[in-house]
Amino acid sequence: MTPKNNLSKSSINPTDKDKQSNSSAMPGWPGYRTREGRSGYDPIDTRTEAAHTAGTILQKLLTGQMRNPIHLALLGILGLILITPLVLAISEIKYGNVLPWNAWIFLLIIGVIGLAILINFIKNLIKIIIR
C-alpha cells in the first residue's frame, strides 16, 4: 500500500518567480513587498524589509565592509560616546575621587564596547583610504 501524497506537482516545483535565486522572492529582501500583484503597503512586509536592511548595515559595520561615509561617521561617534565615561572615570581617580566597584564594572563594560567599536571604525577607515 502506497501512501497518498496530498501535494500536487505544481506545489512541489516552484515557479520561476519563487526560486530562491531571485532575491525579490524572499521576504525581507528589497523588492519583495512590491512584487507583482502587490501594492507595497503591507505592514509586515515593510517591517521585514526594514529589519533586513538594518541587519545588513549592522553586519557590514561589524565585519569591516562599510563603505558609506555617513554610517562610518556615526560608528566613530558612537565609539567615542561609549568610551568617554571610562576616560572621565579614570581622570577622576587621578584627582582622588574613587567610584564604587559596581560603577567600575559598568564603566569597564561600556568602555570595552566603545573601544571595540572604535577599533572597527579605524579598520573601516583604513579600508576606505587604501581603496
What does this structure look like?
- This protein has 131 residues and is an all-alpha fold.
- The chain has two domains: 22-63, no CATH class; 67-131.
- The chain has helices at residues 9-12, 43-63, 69-94, 101-130.
- The protein is elongated and about 70 Å long.
- Mean pLDDT is 78; it is low at 8-12.
List key phrases describing it:
131 residues, mainly alpha, 2 domains, 4 helices
What proportion of the residues form beta strands (DSSP E)?
under 5%
Radius of gyration: 24 Å
Distance between the termini: 66 Å
| Overall pLDDT confidence | 78
For the biggest sheet, the summary is: none
Low-confidence stretches: 8-12
Structural class computed from helices and strand pairing: mainly alpha
Number of strands: 0
Nutshell version of this structure?
With 131 residues, this protein is an all-alpha fold.
Task: Produce the secondary structure layout.
Layout: H1 9-12, H2 43-63, H3 69-94, H4 101-130
